[in-house]
Amino acid sequence: MATKSWEYGKTPSWFRRLSPGLVFPICLTLASPSVSADTLGQVISAALVRSGEPALSNSLRQQGDALRRQSSGVLSADPSLNLNYISDQITDDEGFREIEATLELPLWWQGQRGARQGVAQALGDQAEVLDLQQQWVMAGRVREQAWEVVLAEATLHQMQLALQTSRDLEIQVTGLVSAGELSRFDRLTIRQEVAEREADVSDAQSAHRIALAGYRQLTGQTDLPKPLYEPPAPITELPENHPRLQQAQHALALARAETVQARRSRAGTPVLGIGGRNTREFSGASSHDAVQLSLTLPFGLAGQSAPAIASAVRTQTEQDVALQQAQLTTEQALLSARLDHQGAKEALNLAKQRQTLAQDALHMAQRAFDLGETDLVQLLRTQALARNSALDLEQRRIELGRAQARLNQALGVIPE
What we know:
Strand content: 5-15%
Number of helices: 9
CATH architecture: Up-down Bundle
Order of helices and strands: HHHHEEHHHEEHH
Family: Belongs to the outer membrane factor (OMF) (TC 1.B.17) family.
Structural class: alpha+beta
InterPro entries: OMP_efflux, TolC-like
Subcellular location: Cell outer membrane
Radius of gyration: 38 Å
Number of domains: 1
Keywords: Cell outer membrane, Membrane, Signal, Transmembrane, Transmembrane beta strand, Transport
Helix content: 55-70%
Strand order of the largest sheet: 1-2-3-4
Signal peptide: 1-37
CATH superfamily: Outer membrane efflux proteins (OEP)
CATH class: Mainly Alpha
Distance between the termini: 20 Å
Number of strands: 4
């Protein structure tokens, strides 16, 4: 967005020498530091990969896939082989012997397989939503860190311009002192002013380095996204598919599926036994073979399954409350972002008015100083007001851009 941060058309010639460095819009320069910079969406994706968070959703998918494969089989658990050997060798010792082998196959009660598949589906859905929620959270972090860098750069630029202004004035004052038109005290005063501006530049450089280091640590990128300024979102109301709400909704859906599974599992699982038996009545007698089938049916007492069901219900209740809290939190964040955006607009308009007045006052003060109608102290005060108004104007412009980004974030918009 091409905006001009300071009007210099009415300033004296010594001050206008600074204007070429200000012709290019500071906001545009800060938001687009490199022609090769990635888009905001690409930077967010890079930061997300750098964080390692996608592994969480991948683990959920793997869990869901494993549960789906397990529930698609005929057996509800691992089969087992039961071997029995019976002999009267240490009792009657008449040669009685019985060998029995049974393969036990755990089966499903009606509804148990469907309940487990429901949990598998809920896990898969939650993994997809977790991807979206992670992108949204990272988008907020990248937005905030990038705008911190922009704000720090704007402050640094303004401090550098103020320092150059003070140095140019120092040259003018030194010449006037040499000509006997000003006292040596005035030269000392302007030197103190230059020293203060140098300290401001040093502080601004430190703040800029810290902000840039934080951005690089988060994203692994050296340049800010291009463009950084975001257009207003096409939506104005809280969408139903907001990432925070979707995450809470799917967490509740998973808890409900696990509750259904707990209720379906209260009776245990039936076990089908398929086996064979070889029997010999006494020594020398012929043996007899037989095939046997067995079916084990668990009773499923309510007292035994109640703790597991109660635990699942408690988790479901917690997720239900979490969904309500997420709804309230998201609505509150959107309201706050709207008010902040509106306030940023109003603050920018006021800053423009203050900057215009400060520039007019600076023009008059400089003219009066050149004509000897006012002293150096008054000129420095007026310059300080103009400097502060220019810095405030740049900050307000940047804060409006950040407020728009925060509003988009509150609406659940993820840059592409």
